[in-house]
Structures are given as structure tokens and as C-alpha cells.
Amino acid sequence: MLGRRILRIKAFKTVYSFAENRSMTLKEAAAQLNKSCEATRDLYLLMLSLPVAVTAEALSRIEAARGKFNPTEEERHPNLRFTNNSIARILGNDTEFNSILKKKKFSWDQSDVLLRHLYENLKQRDYYRRYMEAPECTPRMDAQLWVKFFEQELVDNPDLEPILEDMSIWWNDDLAYALTRACKTVEDLAKGKQWEMPELYQSDMKDAPGLDDDSAFVHKLVERAVAGYDRYCESIAQRTPKWDLSRICTTDLVLIACGLAEWELYPQTPVKIIINEYVEIAKFYSTPESRAFVNGILDKLINK
Fold it and tell me: Using 50, 70 and 90 to split pLDDT, how confident is the model at 296?
């Protein structure tokens, strides 16, 4: 499930925690890394359960309208295409999926405001209207609806953000990745594939043969970066004689340390790829000037 890009981000965050708390041991760093990786899969599971919850909210609203003293004709005979969508039905009936959710105590039962807003917003979307008015309905169309929902309704959602923050401190910045995986899952379900709990690391997945061991990659990366952090900082200081090391932001120091650690561990990886990966991470987690700084220092140190 987790590919190399997000694993590098997980490693960077773990090493950053070490840099900010130098009393952290390698064992503690490894434990934090494991929690961070597992949390991304947990977030995927929670997001994948939303189609069932939103569909249930829609059905509840329809039943309430039918029970009114004087319902309209539309309320008496509602369009049930959305409430009968195949994706929610498959997930809602999947014993293993729901057993895992129950074991992890993942539920949207206490998030009625969020579900109400999600359903109300969904009904206003053009893609929802086209879905409801289409002359036919197929599992593929059901999946496309949920893909659009995942892509457009959840990122930067003001109702969802505080819920996720309360549920886990590890879910910062992981939502987009978890939603991407959820999109892939609903597309597979529409093709008739049965849901299976995804392996934590991409290299362990059945549809990813031949990949190197991702678990070993990220754990070795953190171990090497933590163990060699002071050495890497000294190398950076030698290459930046006009700068006091304390003036360089910790984020940049950690990114460079991770890049050097990966280069030492995997010298067969093209240098350009390693540098580009950490420059990309710098775009999101450091200052506007950090891209050039990380790129330049890594290039000098590795070539040296």
C-alpha cells in the first residue's frame, strides 16, 4: 500500500522528531515509524467506510421525508439510485471489512453533522445529478460517483479536519494518499474484485511483484539517518562555512541527512533520483528557499 515517496516522508518526519528530541532512541524512532505507517492504512479504512455511512444518511433522510404528514409526490416516490448503489452495498455486506472496522473502533455514528453536510453538498454537485438522471446504472458508474466524491468533497473539508485530528495525531498530511487508495479500491470492487485488507507495504502486495522490500528500506533509512545525524550535520557545516549551523532550519538539515543516508545505503540508486525526491519533500515541508538549498548541498556532498 505504501510506496517509496510516502515512505520517505514517513522517514523524514521520524528523523525530524529525533532532531527535535535528541533523547529519542533508535528503538523509539522505529516504534514511531511503525505507528505512522500503520496509521495511513487505518485512515484508508476509515475513508473507505464513508460510502456506507453517507448512503445510510441518504436513506434516513428519504425515510423521514416519506413519513411526513403530507409528503410531496417526489417524497413518496424518491429516486433510490444513490441509496441502492452497489459500492456501499458491497462494503456494507463485507464481513471482514466490517470486522476490522469494529476491532479498530472506527465509526461515523457520532459524526452526524459531517454526514448531513456531505450528503447535502453531494446533492448539489453536477456529477451527482448526472448520475441520478442517467438512463442506466452500472457498478462502474457507482464507482465513478464515489471516486468523484473522494476527490472533491473531503480534502480541506472544515467538518472533517477536526474529526480526524481528534481521532489520530498521525493522520496529518495523509488524507490525500488514503483517498487515492480508496479510489483504487472502489474501482476494483466495480470490476468484481473482492475487498482484501491491503498489505502495509507496496512491495508486499500481490499486484506489485519484483519490488524491493519497502519495510527494510524505510527502517534502514531511519536507522542510518538517526545514527549518522551528527556526522551529516558536520558535513553540512563544512559545506556552508558562511552559515552558523543553528541558522539552518531543522527541516532542511533532516532532509539532507535523509538524502545522504539513502545514498549511503543504496548507492546503486541514481543520485539524481535521490536528490529530486528530497527536493520534492522540501516543497511541502520547508521554506520557499529550501528546494535550492537542499538540492545544492546534497549535490555537493554526494558528488564529493
Answer: very high
Q: Give the C-alpha separation, 204 to 181, whole Å.
A: 15
CA–CA dist 10, 220 (Å, integer): 12
How far is Cα 160 from Cα 79, in angstroms, rounded to an integer? 28
Residues 6 or more apart whose Cβ sits within 8 Å of residue 202? 1, 2, 3, 4, 208, 211, 214
**Which letter, b or e, does each residue of 214-238 get, where b requires 16 or more Cβ atoms within 10 Å of its Cβ?**
bbebbbbbbbbbbebbeebbebbee
Alpha-carbon span 282 to 258, nearest angstrom: 12
- Of all helices (H) and strands (E), which one includes residue 159? none
Residues 291 and 299: their CA atoms lie apart, in Å, by 12
The one-letter code for the residue type at 105 is K
Give the number of C-alpha atoms closer than 13 A to the C-alpha of residue 32, restricted to the C-beta side: 20
Q: Which residues contact 265 (CB under 8 A, 6 or more apart)?
A: 220, 221, 224
| Average pLDDT score, the chain | 94
- Give the pLDDT band (50/70/90) at residue 206: low
The half-sphere exposure of 246 on its side-chain side, counting CA atoms within 13 A, is: 0
Report the pLDDT averaged over residues 285-304: 92
> Quick one: residue 142, left, alpha or beta (phi over 0 = left, psi -120 to 50 = alpha)?
alpha
Size of the chain in residues: 304
pLDDT at 211 over 80: no
Q: Regarding predicted confidence, which is higher, 142 or 247?
A: 142
Q: Say how far apart CA 276 and CA 266 lie, in whole Å.
A: 15
pTM summary value: 0.92
Query: Which residues lie closer than 8 Å to 278 by C-beta, 6 or more apart?
Result: 8, 12, 255, 256, 258, 259, 294, 298
